[in-house]
Amino acid sequence: MSTKINFQGKVLSKSEKILIVVSRFNSDITEKLLKGTEKRLLELGIHQADIDVIIVPGAIEIPVVTSLMASQNKHAAIICLGAVIRGETSHYDYVCGQVSDGCARISLETKKPIVFGILTTENEAQAYERLGGNHGHKGYEFAETTIEMIQVINALRQ
Ligand code: INI
Question: d(Cα 20, Cα 34) in Å, to the nearest integer?
Fold first, then answer.
């Protein structure tokens, strides 16, 4: 018997609890990212009461909170939102490396959808292009990925 798993575009049959961990650094951008993500989650059938949000200072602080919350197993998925902008210093590379490694590790350790919703851009303009500009709205994409991955993981766990 062959298996085919493909939940692209399929909505959940019932709402699930979702956590969004969002960083305050570059808050003009991360607030728009959060708004777009929440809007699309609601369109896809998630109830507002099922969306928890935790705000942290910067992207570096996202993995520890995500790890703690993933281990409590209260949410079907965690969406990590942030904006890392290169600017002038090498800090960018450290921040990007730590947050991406951290999120990947938590997802593999907990076998939970941990959606990497961190914009990593050269400048602010590139970030805004991804918030309803030339590159669509990444918040919508992160919400859609979340809904799809909850269904993939649920199907594989049965
Ligand atoms: N945090 C971000 O979320 N984005 C950035 O662009 C950024 N830059 O460029 O410095 C940033 N730095 C702060 C970092 O995430 C931590 O909050 C800080 O290092 C304290 O741990």
Answer: 8
Which residue has the CA at smallest separation from atom 19 of ligand 1? 60
Give residue 63 CA to ligand 1 midpoint distance, Å. 13
Task: Look at residue 104 in the predicted model and tell me its pLDDT.
Answer: 97
For residue 13, give the 3-state DSSP assignment: coil
Token reading at 108: 């593999």
Could you state, in chain order, the average pLDDT of each consecutive group of 10 residues for the chain (158 residues)? 92 96 97 98 97 97 98 98 86 92 97 97 94 92 98 93
Distance 66 CA to ligand 1 centre (A): 16
Pocket test for ligand 1, best of 27, 33, 60, 122 (most atoms within 8 A of CB): 60
Q: Write down the pTM of the prediction.
A: 0.96
* Ligand 1 binding pocket includes 61 (Cβ within 6 Å): yes
Pocket test for ligand 1, best of 26, 91, 95 (most atoms within 8 A of CB): 95
- Contact (CB, 8 A) for 4 and 138: no
Q: Which two tokens mark 3?
A: 């298996």
Contact 66, 99 (CB under 8 A): no
Q: Tell me the domains of the chain and their CATH numbers.
A: 18-157 (3.40.50.960)
